[in-house]
Structure formats: C-alpha cells, structure tokens
Amino acid sequence: MIAFGLGIASRNSALDIIETFYPLPAVNPDEDFARELSNLCELRFGDSGFRSLDAEGLEVFFAAARDAFQHEQESVAARLRDSERPILLCLSHGQSPPTSAPEAFLKLHLLSHRLARPHEQNLDGIFSVLHNLAWTSRGPVSLQDLPNLLLEARKQGETLSVHSVDKFPKMTDYVVPSGVRLADSARIRLGAYVGEGTTVMHEGFINFNAGTEGQAMIEGRISAGVMVGENSDLGGSSSTMGTLSGGGTEIVSVGRNCLIGANAGIGMSLADGCIVEAGLYLTAGAVVRELDGEGNLVRTCKASELSGLAHRLFRRNSLSGAIECLPRKAHVTLNEELHAHN
Ligand SMILES: CC(C)(COP(=O)(O)OP(=O)(O)OC[C@H]1O[C@@H](n2cnc3c(N)ncnc32)[C@H](O)[C@@H]1OP(=O)(O)O)[C@@H](O)C(=O)NCCC(=O)NCCS
User: Fold this and answer.
1) With a 6 A CB cut-off, is 162 part of the ligand 1 pocket?
2) What is the pLDDT of residue 332?
3) Ligand 1 and 317: CB distance under 6 A
4) SS3 per residue for 272-308
5) Which of 59, 141, 196, 255 could form a disulfide with 179 if both were Cys (CB 3.0 to 4.6 A apart)?
C-alpha cells in the first residue's frame, strides 16, 4: 500500500515538526502520480518521507494532482493554499516502519479514516518517532515550550488547558468516522479503527491499530492490535489483553456476535458467538474444563486451546469455582434502539 497526504504541520520552538493533521489522506495513487509525488518529495520511488512545500511546491503538487484527484479532494487540498502553518507532503509505504512524526501521523490517520485496517501497515517503532506532547486547548505543544505558553496565556487573562500529555492525541481532533457514537472522545486514540455503527460508551477505550469491524457496543477496553468482530458487545470495564507491556506476545481478537461480560477479560482470542461470564478473566493459560451439551467432561486444557471453538460460554462454575467452557445457550443481541441513531 502506498499512501500520501497533504498536511498542516505543527512545529516546536526549535522548528522540529512535532505533529501533522491530514484533512484528506489517500491510498494507492496510480503509478504515474505516485512517481510525481516521489519526485516532489525528492525521494526515490518506493521510499517513504516528507517535504515541506512552499507556494511553488504546492502549485507543482496541484498540477500533478489535477487528473488524479476527485473534485472533493481538489477543493479540500486547495484550501491549504492560504494556511498560516507549514504545509507538507508525506508519502508512506505500508510495509516500511514510520521514520518520522509526519509519517507516523499519516499512518494513524489512515487507520481512523478506515483507509487501512489494523495490522495492514508496519507500525514498528512508532513510539520512538512520535513526540510526547501536551495536547492543549490551542493544539499540540512541546513540553519544553509549555511553561512559557501557560504563562503567556495567563498574562492575557486566559487559561491554556492541557487535556493530556501523551504521544497519541484523541482521534476526534483529527477524524470523526461516519456512523459512530463516542460518549467520551478522550478515550479513543488517533489510529483507532472504529467500524460503522459502533457505539463506545464512557468506560470504553480504543487504542491505535485496533478497533471494531462494524456494529458493536464497546463499554470495555480494546487494546492495541485487538480487532472486535461485528455485532459484538464488550461489557462495562471488560478488558482485552494487550501486548504493548506486561509480557504477552499473542495478539487477541474477538469474533462476531460475542459478549464479554462486565469486568471480564480475555488473554486469548474468541471465535464467533462466544460469551465470557461477567467478572471472569480468561487468561491464555487458565485451566478450563471443556464440557459437552449434556455437561459431560470432554477434556481439561488451557483456555488458548479453545480459541477456535465457536458458540461457547465460558464461566466459573458457581459451586466448584472451576472455569468451564460449554456450548452456549444464552442469546446475545445488540440493543437495536441503542444503535439506531449512530
Ligand atoms: C454467564 C451468563 C451469560 C449466563 O447467562 P445465562 O445462561 O442466561 O444464565 P442463566 O442465569 O439463565 O442460567 C442458565 C443455567 O446455567 C446455570 N448457570 C449460569 N451461570 C452459572 C455458573 N456461573 N455456574 C454454574 N451454573 C451457572 C444457571 O443456574 C442455569 O441453570 P438451569 O438451566 O439449571 O436453570 C451471565 O451470567 C453473564 O455473565 N452475562 C454477562 C452480562 C453482561 O455482563 N453484560 C454486559 C453489561 S455491561
């Protein structure tokens, strides 16, 4: 995959680019156009990188883009002509890791615009190219510049509000994908892939390179790398185990029509139609008794060995405390009314 974006960049006082907003990123331009973009960025064809465009560079871009752009793209891009902030053109190849903050931001935009699915792009090393920034009521600010800006704002009788200090901003300051409802936008990072028809309630969280396939009710946490299938429900404060810290390496996924109950969690993937009882944290190595439809023991194994089984209920036997996996009886449906107005 080749992606490109014309973006508005923010710099710190040392003039390093710390962040970039791409109003209209695009993927897979035709080869002639992609070659022209490489030339404009002074890159070898096939390499990733970016270049700040002056007025002349912008006109070269528009001349090259004229045939390739749709009308809507052309009009959005044209509005960047009178930007007070630096404009840059960034090219990124899906298979290569990001090597700069502008490229990392382009890759994150692609995910939230649903132009790239989680795991489709190489994001290795993204933490080392992103800056840890203060995300403020006046946009991203480097931590070195922050004390001065806080003081200057006060001198003018204003308060500069710092919403977070992080490498990733909230998604909705950059992209609001169609057909979603997001109760607390601060809990969804740029780079989340939020499927059409998804509702994320206040307790829900979606990390970058992770998300939902389509209609879903998210009241729990979707860790980096985790994908949740259509019509699934993550109950209040439930958890999908991530791999960014804490030692795990297996990236988990949730199938379609699943329910992870309130305060439950998974450290192994779930196939379609599975339910995890409220409060049960199912780690990959947890010992589970697999039962047949009559309640007879089939085998005792690790939870991860049951990942491929569809339509199962995982629960703690309320008499013995043992974790059981049995053919599911309970039916899970999303509340139609909740999703009708996404
Ligand atoms: C695990 C769960 C799905 C069971 O649901 P269910 O199958 O509808 O449960 P029921 O209460 O109808 O029980 C069905 C049968 O299984 C038994 N059973 C249920 N949970 C059991 C357990 N933990 N241990 C032993 N037996 C259990 C019941 O006693 C009942 O037995 P019976 O058929 O002999 O009467 C439910 O308890 C649960 O945790 N749901 C999650 C809901 C949730 O968190 N939603 C998100 C909100 S934010």
Assistant:
1) no
2) 66
3) yes
4) CCCEECCCCEECCCCEEEEECCCCCEEEEEEHHHHCC
5) 196
User: Does the domain formed by 2-129 have CATH 3.30.70.2010?
Assistant: yes
Asked if residue 140 lies in contact with residue 173, where contact means CB atoms within 8 angstroms, the answer is no
Residue 59 pLDDT level (bands cut at 50, 70, 90): confident
Question: Cα 87 from chain centroid?
Answer: 24
CA of 139 to the centre of ligand 1 (A): 48
Backbone angles phi, psi at 6, to 5 degrees: -100, 120
Q: Is the pLDDT of residue 70 over 80?
A: no
Question: Distance between CA atoms of 282 and 287, rounded to whole angstroms?
Answer: 9
Q: Which atom of ligand 1 is nearest to the CA of 317?
A: 24
The residues, any chain, with a CB within 8 Å of residue 150's CB and separated by 6 or more, are 160
CATH 2.160.10.10 residue spans of the chain: 171-339
Ranges in the chain annotated CATH 3.30.70.2010 = 2-129
* Residues 202-249 pLDDT 10s: 999 999 999 999 999 999 999 999 999 999 999 999 999 977 766 677
What pLDDT is stored for residue 246 in this prediction?
A: 67
Q: Which positions are catalytic?
A: 219
